[in-house]
Amino acid sequence: MCSAKMAALSAAVLALCLCCAAAAVPLVIWHGMGDTCCNPLSMGYIRKIVESKIPGIYVLSLQIGSNLIQDMENSFFMNANDQVREVCSQLAKDPHLKGGYNSMGFSQGGQFLRAVAQRCPSPPMLNLISIGGQHQGVYGFPRCPGESSHICDWIRKTLDLGAYTRAVQEHLVQAEYWHDPLKEDDYRKNSIFLADINQERGINETYKKNLMALKKFVMVKFLNDTMVDPPISEWFGFYKSGQAKETIPLKETSLYTEDRLGLQEMDKAGKLVFLGVKGDHLHFSEEWFYTSILPFLQ
User: What confidence score (pLDDT) does residue 157 get?
Assistant: First the structure.
């Protein structure tokens, strides 16, 4: 009788362990410029197809602000550092995430989630998937999403007038990852976001340690991108310093050769994944998403 009870108890414990092991890792999504957390044609659609393929998964699509209008406006005008702090607070308070989570950032959401990985290690980010994120910044806005074109016209004029002035840096998100290869000193001194997370002013060992804790850092580049300048920034490359025509890949940048962020070590450990997809910025098929991205979420 006792042995039968023990056997039943052991079976129950085993079943519980198997159930826990099979539980889906939560997913956190951060949208791009001019978008919102819950647009049914973008982030809402991504959430829906992930939930359809991974039953029981908890998906948090980040909203910055108290409503969707604020969420969209903040993607242009709320200091990126303040946004990252807000997200870190959201994640820390969410009980679903305490065991760790995967993250997926679209366009500028990619570099913002990398900042979260570097600055806020608790709860732990397991995999970071950057879909069209600009990790070395941008030097131009050739085209803008949807109905935001009038805003981007104003952004271009503002950046031309003084991207690295204090007022512009504090209040224009896109200026905070504006990387002028003709003014590298100004960029390093005055960029309040990108220059910091890319270790341009010195080595923050905590940033390096936290990023290296990722299991995988997946970077997706759109091979026909007309929105990001230069597109190689999506693979952490950029223009060769001092000019804006010739680009260099990540492995030829000083960030990699000096290993200021741990990317070289991560690369050698097989933690960096570079994916290319045919199409313009954020244009991809459901089939591509299922075959190329879903495996990193399961």
Answer: 76
Residue 158 has pLDDT above 60, yes or no: yes
Residue 122 to residues 91, 98, 101, 112, 166: CA-CA distances in angstroms? 8, 8, 10, 16, 31
**Tokens linked to 81:** 């550092």
Whole-number Å distance between alpha carbons of 114 and 121: 11
Respond yes or no: is residue 281 known to be catalytic. yes
| CA 130/CA 268 separation, integer angstroms | 19
Catalytic residue among 31, 225, 233, 292: 225
Question: Taking Cα atoms as reference points, which of 98, 153, 158 lies closest to residue 122?
Answer: 98
What is the pLDDT, as a whole number, of residue 203? 95
What is the mean pLDDT of the segment spanning 230-234? 96
Percent over 90 (pLDDT), the chain: 82
Neighbours of 11 (CB within 10 A): 10
* DSSP state string for 90-103: HHHH-GGGTT-EEE
Q: Which residues contact 12 (CB under 8 A, 6 or more apart)?
A: none
Of the residues 103, 233, 281, 292, which is catalytic?
281
Query: Is 94 an annotated catalytic residue?
Result: no
Coil, strand or helix at 12: helix
C-alpha triplet 57, 51, 21: angle, nearest 5°: 30
**Residue 149 identity (one-letter amino acid):** S
Q: Which of 42, 61, 103, 107 is catalytic?
A: 107
Span 139-164, mean pLDDT?
Answer: 72
Q: Pull the structure tokens for residue 175.
A: 């200026």
71 among known catalytic residues:
no
**Would you place residue 71 in the very low, low, confident or very high pLDDT band (cuts 50, 70, 90)?**
very high
Distances (CA, A) of 192 to 153, 172, 179, 189: 23, 11, 11, 8
> Which band of pLDDT confidence, cut at 50, 70 and 90, is reported for residue 153?
confident
